[in-house]
Design goal:
alpha+beta; Butyryl-Coa Dehydrogenase, subunit A, domain 1; Butyryl-CoA Dehydrogenase, subunit A, domain 2; Butyryl-CoA Dehydrogenase, subunit A, domain 3; four-stranded mixed beta sheet; 8 strands; AcylCo_DH-like_C; FAD; oxidoreductase; AcylCoA_DH/ox_N_sf
Length: about 375
């Protein structure tokens, strides 16, 4: 019987891609302990991802990419996180945003095409830096304190961004800035120059190797055509499913570690390994319920998003619920895994304590739990009132 993680593979092509990512994940797992302990950015992992062609998996085929579906993205991101959550979450922002730009076409096509070709040719990556200390998550609607003022031929941008994942490796990125003259915010594509400083502030409980430092922009110039339109098709935010896929991968790794421990660990007061104990079997059963429930919602949401192209905006409640259930169930799975392993699970020599720390970061990735609950409530109220 295939492993649980293989449950949603539907084709030979998916099997081949999964096998390739499994090999990467195994390599990343060997490095994860050191990068976690040091809080260092895993440049070696990203060199491997570039070499494997992973950075172009969501780039349109017209620009040399693989143009994978959201379902495929979830499948691969989950497996990558099985090896190293930090690397999976980090690269997820890149491949996810390329999928988002591909489906919305909200950027000028020449700018998007140039980025895509650079990804395919040079392994370029992208991320959007929107969070700030004073405004918190941009999903909460706060106005950025970073400003963009008109200059000859473009814009001058000044400010500080927090939670800037991938900042050590990016040579270009998107920043959200407030335009005082227009009293609105806009996105700008910025090239990294000597006016951009990465301050290594990232020293956190979990996801320690994402390089999510502060980025300081000091009168950085962006050409006029690098102001990016926010217009485009509403895709419902399906690309954000790379987030719950990551935390499912971590939970699956914790589950498999606990299962192997239960099958092999036999204290001297037992004649069989602890997997024979009813209490341990009960905990394993609980892990299965949490994992299988969350993954069924996650893959169903991704599949619907791929197929119901005209219906994507109305899928936001389902997409949010998939993230809510995946992250909260992943927390329960890792906790149960640690209970099965016992006190040894606290040891830094074992990966469980890292899984425990990393998985908690999902609570602080968008959409937040209260936002999902409010979205579901509003959808239910609107449905009732429309009768």
């Amino acid at each position: 019987m295939n492993r649980l993680i293989d449950q949603y593979i539907r084709s030979e092509d998916q099997r081949a891609r999964a096998d390739q990512v499994d090999r990467l994940a195994t390599r990343f797992a060997e490095r994860a302990e050191l990068h976690d302990a040091e809080g260092s950015f895993p440049f070696d992992n990203f060199a491997d991802l570039r070499e494997a062609g992973y950075l172009k998996i969501t780039v349109p085929t017209e620009y040399g990419g693989d143009e994978l579906s959201l379902y495929d993205l979830v499948l691969l991101q989950e497996r990558l996180a099985y090896g190293d959550g930090s690397t999976a979450l980090s690269v997820g922002w890149h491949v996810g945003q390329i999928l988002h730009l591909r489906t919305t076409r909200k950027w000028p096509e020449d700018v998007f095409a140039d980025l895509c070709r650079s990804i395919v040719k040079d392994g370029t990556m992208i991320n959007t830096f929107a969070s700030e200390a004073a405004t918190g998550s941009p999903s909460r609607g706060g106005m950025p304190e970073t400003t963009a003022v008109p200059a000859d031929g473009g814009w001058r941008i000044t400010g500080r961004k927090t939670f800037s994942t991938l900042s050590p490796i990016l040579d270009r990125f998107v920043v959200t800035a407030y335009i005082p003259d227009e009293q609105c915010a806009s996105d700008f594509l910025v090239q990294r120059t000597d006016r951009v400083t990465v301050e290594e502030t990232w020293n956190t409980l979990g996801m320690r190797a994402t390089g999510s430092h502060d980025v300081v922009l000091d009168d950085v110039f962006a050409p006029r055509n690098m102001r990016l339109s926010s217009k485009g098709a509403d895709d419902g935010g399906g690309w954000l499913l790379h987030i719950p896929a990551c935390y499912m991968g971590i939970a699956l790794a914790a589950r498999d570690f606990a299962l192997e421990f239960a099958r092999t660990y036999r204290p001297n007061n037992l004649n069989e390994p602890i997997a024979s104990l009813p209490s341990v079997q009960h905990a394993i059963g609980e892990m299965e319920i949490e994992l299988r429930t969350a993954r069924s919602l996650l893959y169903a949401a991704a599949d619907r998003w791929d197929k119901e192209t005209e219906n994507r905006p109305s899928l936001k409640p389902e997409l949010g619920m998939a993230k809510y259930v995946a992250v909260n169930n992943a927390l329960k799975v890792v906790d149960l895994a640690m209970r099965i392993v016992g006190g040894a699970s606290l040891s830094r020599k074992l990966p469980l304590e890292r899984y425990y720390r990393d998985v908690r970061a999902g609570l602080h990735n968008p959409p937040m739990d209260n936002t999902v609950i409010q979205t579901l409530a509003s959808a239910a109220i609107d449905e009732t009132s429309s009768r």
